[in-house]
Design a protein that fits this description.
Elements: H1 8-11, E1 25-27, H2 29-39, E2 59-61, E3 64-66, E4 69-74, H3 78-83, E5 86-88, H4 96-110, E6 114-118, H5 128-148, E7 153-155, H6 164-177, E8 182-185, H7 200-209, E9 212-215, H8 233-236, H9 238-252, H10 255-258, E10 263-266, H11 278-286, H12 300-303, E11 308-310, H13 316-326, E12 331-332, H14 345-350, H15 357-372
Parallel strand pairs: 4-6, 6-7, 8-9, 9-10, 10-11, 11-12
Antiparallel strand pairs: 1-5, 2-3
Helix pairs in contact: 6-7
Length: 376
């Protein structure tokens, strides 16, 4: 990361960041504003973080120490969320010094050397001036935090995709000036699918920059009523379904043909799409009347092999099947930290049968390092 844009005074300045998981935010400005004023921020009197006392788990594959990289890790910026009238339900400590050290201790216990931090987009409905302010705060705070712990964190930028003309320069500034490694987006934006031509300038710029776009779903809003009740269905079913729909549109509407070098990584193993991918190959054969005239350059399933996916699929058989469908070189660690969906994500890869040491190394960190510009 290009940390030269921050001097030592900047790294000790007021950085506001809270580590939290998906779907833990509720509408209320009072508590969020309180956190933005103090509880979620590093005070100017704090110095560099104290020496950490936790013992880092070292991951060894084939007799060699591995640098493990988690691409799916959540945080929020209370200062920015206060502007949106949101509060953080899972606040985790008074200052970034303490919160950062706690996060690192948890990473050490899991065997995670580096995390790529992302913020789930809750701002797609915000008006132009407000969202510009929110994005600026979030990207600057993320960059400051990563500069403070350069050997443990990188981050994905936030962008205001509801205004693509804003999102493009926001992405450029985040990558070229702040040193962020890509962008985190939802699975749709304000009711529009990412295959919509209005997003083409954003995809074009992401392709030009060669950076990674991390897709994290926001449930499936159209099914909100049916997803109520026991089981946390808005997340359990809604999130992977949201991703499945997003990726399917990108494939069938020709977006991935238009931007063939676009680097996309989706959370939760790509949702349901890789598990039932062959149905997509047969869809227009069975229902030719649904052909809108977009002529794909290859079979729908073949596009799966040009995207990336995290390994948050829980079982060895699910991991084996995902690798068989998309290619093991397309898989990267995803923990969903700090939500404990899969706390033993490293063991999930180490203990899954049928993979070679070379393949385990790719999943644990080698592929992510190439995508995020991290020294292996």
């Amino acid at each position: 990361m290009r940390t030269e844009v921050f001097d030592r005074r900047a790294t000790a300045a007021m950085i506001g960041i809270t580590f939290t998981g998906c779907d833990v935010l509720a509408a209320s400005s009072a508590r969020a504003q309180s956190m933005a004023r103090g509880t979620g921020r590093l005070q100017r009197t704090e110095r560099r973080p104290k020496t950490l006392t936790s013992r880092r788990r070292k991951v060894v594959v084939g007799g060699r120490r591995m640098k493990t990289i988690d691409v799916h890790a959540h945080c929020v910026i209370p200062e920015a969320y206060a502007l949106l009238g949101l509060k953080v339900e899972d606040h985790r400590g008074p200052g970034i010094g303490e919160v950062g050290e706690r996060r690192i201790r948890e990473m050490d216990a899991q065997g995670i050397d580096m995390e790529a931090l992302s913020i789930n987009p809750r701002w797609y409905g915000a008006e132009r001036d407000l969202v510009a302010q929110v994005i600026k705060i979030q990207n600057e705070r993320l960059a400051e935090f990563c500069a403070k712990y350069p050997d443990r964190f990188v981050a994905f930028a936030s962008v205001a995709l509801q205004f693509p003309d804003l999102a493009v320069p926001q992405l450029v500034e985040a990558v070229k000036k702040l040193g962020l490694r890509g962008a985190a987006v939802g699975a749709s934006c304000a009711g529009a699918e990412f295959s919509d031509p209005k997003f083409h300038p954003f995809w074009a710029k992401a392709e030009e920059l060669g950076i990674l776009i991390f897709i994290h779903p926001q449930s499936t809003p159209d099914l909100k009523r049916r997803l109520q009740g026991q089981g946390w269905l808005e997340n359990t079913i809604g999130n992977p379904l949201d991703t499945t729909i997003a990726l399917s549109h990108l494939i069938f509407e020709g977006t991935l043909d238009r931007f063939p070098k676009l680097k996309i990584c989706s959370a939760h193993g790509g949702g349901y799409l890789p598990s039932y991918a062959a149905r997509s190959d047969n869809s227009l054969r069975v229902a030719p009347d649904m052909d809108t005239g977009v002529k794909l350059k290859k079979k729908p399933t073949e596009y799966l092999k040009q995207m990336y996916y995290d390994t948050l699929v829980f079982t060895s058989e699910a991991l084996r099947h995902l690798a068989a469908e998309v290619g093991v070189n397309r898989l990267v660690v995803g923990t969903d930290h700090p939500i404990p969906w899969q706390a033993k994500s490293i063991d999930h890869i180490l203990k899954a049968p049928g993979f070679s040491n070379a393949e385990r190394k790719m999943m644990l960190g080698e592929t992510a390092a190439k995508l995020l510009g991290i020294k292996p």
